[in-house]
Amino acid sequence: MERTSSEDRRLDDAHKRDIVVKRLNERGVSLEEIAEITLDLQKPHVPGLTLATCLDHVERVVMKREVQHAVLTGLELDVLAEKGLVSEPLRSILMSDYGLYGIDEVLALAIVNVYGSIGLTNFGYVDKTKLGIVKKVDERGKADGVCHTFLDDMIGAIAAAAASSVAHRYA
Ligand code: MG
């Protein structure tokens, strides 16, 4: 039987989800660690919220095409910068995680915007407080030859988007 185009799209999204998770793992980040941030964000608002539920919402977020495309783009730029395959001045900007670059946060908006303004508020909070794995990734990114300029924002945005998804469901 022929598959409909919407079925094709679902399979395609599931396949890309696997690649996104693999790339995140290769960069030292698990979905569970992202879900821990989501739990921290939503615990005060949703009594009895569990890590398993948060992980469920993180999974929903990484099934979205806009999210997958943003994450793949961001992680790719980090890796290319580490390999010296980005030309100057961008390479130095990325390798030093230059504070006024700002495009890492702009790309993160493509993720949080999927869930509307509450996603934006949550992302701003994660970006400021550097919860959990975001802080760890930030620290690891300071090592010589390591570029986590986009990685921290991608995981902060996924956590914030998942928190918004939880809020839409329970609040
Ligand atoms: Mg950054």
Describe this structure in words.
The protein has 171 residues and is mainly α. The protein has one domain (5-170): PgpA-like (YutG-like, Orthogonal Bundle). It is built from 9 helices and no strands. Helix 1 packs parallel to helix 4 (65-82), helix 6 runs parallel beside helix 9 (151-170) and helix 7 (117-129) crosses helix 9. The longest helix is centred in the first third of the chain and has 22 residues, at 5-26. The protein is globular. The mean pLDDT is 93. It binds magnesium ion. Magnesium ion binds next to helix 9. Residues 104, 149, 152-153 line the site of magnesium ion.
The CATH homology group name: PgpA-like
CATH-level-2 architecture: Orthogonal Bundle
- Radius of gyration (CA) equals 16 Å
Number of helices: 9
Which CATH class is shown? Mainly Alpha
Q: Major β-sheet, in short?
A: none
Question: What is the CA-CA span between the terminal residues?
Answer: 42 Å
Order of helices and strands: HHHHHHHHH
The domain tally reads 1
The helix content, as a percent range, equals over 70%
CATH topology: YutG-like
Shape: globular
Strand content: under 5%
Low-pLDDT parts are none
> Structural class of the helix and strand makeup?
mainly alpha
Cofactors and ligands: magnesium ion
